[in-house]
Amino acid sequence: MKRIFLLLMATGICHSSLLASSTKHAVAAPLSITIKNPSAIARNEELVEIPYARLHAVTGPFKLINKQTGKELPYQLAYEGAPQPQLLLVQVSVPAHGNVVITAVPGKPAPVVSRTYARFVPERKDDFAWENDRVAFRMYGAALENFPAENAHGVDVWTKRTSELVLNKWYKTNDYHHDNGQGLDYYHVGMTLGGGDIAPYMNDSIYYPRNYRTWKVLDSGPLRCTFQLGYEAWQVGSTTVSVVKTVSLDAGSQLNKMTVQYTLKQGDSLPVVAGIVKRPAPGTILLDEKTGIAGYWEPEHGADGITGVGLVLPVHQGPMEVTAQHLLAHAKASAKQPFVYYFGAAWNKAGRYTSAAQWFTYLQTFAEKLSAPLEININQ
CA 363 to CA 344: how far, in whole Å? Predict the structure, then answer.
């Protein structure tokens, strides 16, 4: 059976045989990708990961077409910091217990509007900030430690009610602590885990590292941004610990994926907690140890509205608890493999989730989707 020969042009590299004949494509039959939804949940605009190494028959500029609708699908080549693409990310909608068939055809793909973005922000005391079309976040760097009254540790949440990417604009104007019509930063972190950070936990205490010291953007859109933050070693009980955190955020998602790799001078595992800072006034709390979900619908913050924050731990190994300062999910992280969980937030004024029940349903549905990933079959 003949194959298509298409060239993935994202790196600007092409095979010499195609350079000699750039106006022709040897196409006999299209590459076909079937994406099956095994669950009873419709998957709307979900980002599917296809290992680039599996696309043996793909060379040349190409478009992805939904065979059922005939419409072109947006995609991204994710490099994950490598010189060559590692993943083909395709955004699809698949009905419950249904499937979608995608074909790759020669041609220049339509431009994809950027819906995710991440960058180091040296002009604001070494912040690292990132966003998608739903929400924005930041974490704090070394320079902030020179300002003890301002210093903070965990994940900061910036609420948005626009699909536009706003980080650069907000940092440029330095006017993001009141609602300018697009959203604002009213979330208070301080020396806590904030909106979903993770840290070692021993003797009823959280062992915070200093703020991150190194950063690296692995991908910055249009459909997924991914970056790494590195932390210098610190003492946790009788062992010395260092950590690298890899965070990715997809277009259309309220939650980030956090991949944490600890290095331990002694031992091969470490007790940790992922957490959400708790406010003094009453809010609504969900702790579901069975499914690994921790949800928090904060008390209303005056005219600023209400933020919902959540954690999803696919491998839920330990208990959850409410302390005076946090909602905590306990787990054990291995030095031999990464620890993965999800964290994120929503804002009632964005209009998608306007009650605790709606926000908790989103978290529960997210967890159900993780347990029933879309299935991929490539015919080439």
Answer: 10
Handedness of CA 280, 341, 292, 350 (dihedral sign): positive
Structure tokens at 145: 């430690």
What is the C-alpha separation between 209 and 231, in angstroms, rounded? 7
Asked if residue 192 lies in contact with residue 275, where contact means CB atoms within 8 angstroms, the answer is yes
Is the separation of the CB atoms in 165 and 225 below 8 Å? no
Nearest to 140 by CA among 153, 121, 123: 153
**Number of C-beta neighbours around residue 96 at 10 A:** 11
What are the chain's domains? 16-112 (2.60.40.1180), 116-370 (2.70.98)
Tens digits of residue pLDDT in 69-98: 999 999 999 999 999 999 999 999 999 999
Q: How far apart are CA 148 and CA 141, in angstroms?
A: 13
pLDDT in tens, 203-258: 999 999 999 999 999 999 999 999 999 999 999 999 999 999 999 999 999 999 99
Cα 88 to Cα 86: distance, rounded to the nearest angstrom: 7
Helix (H) or strand (E) holding 364: helix 356-371
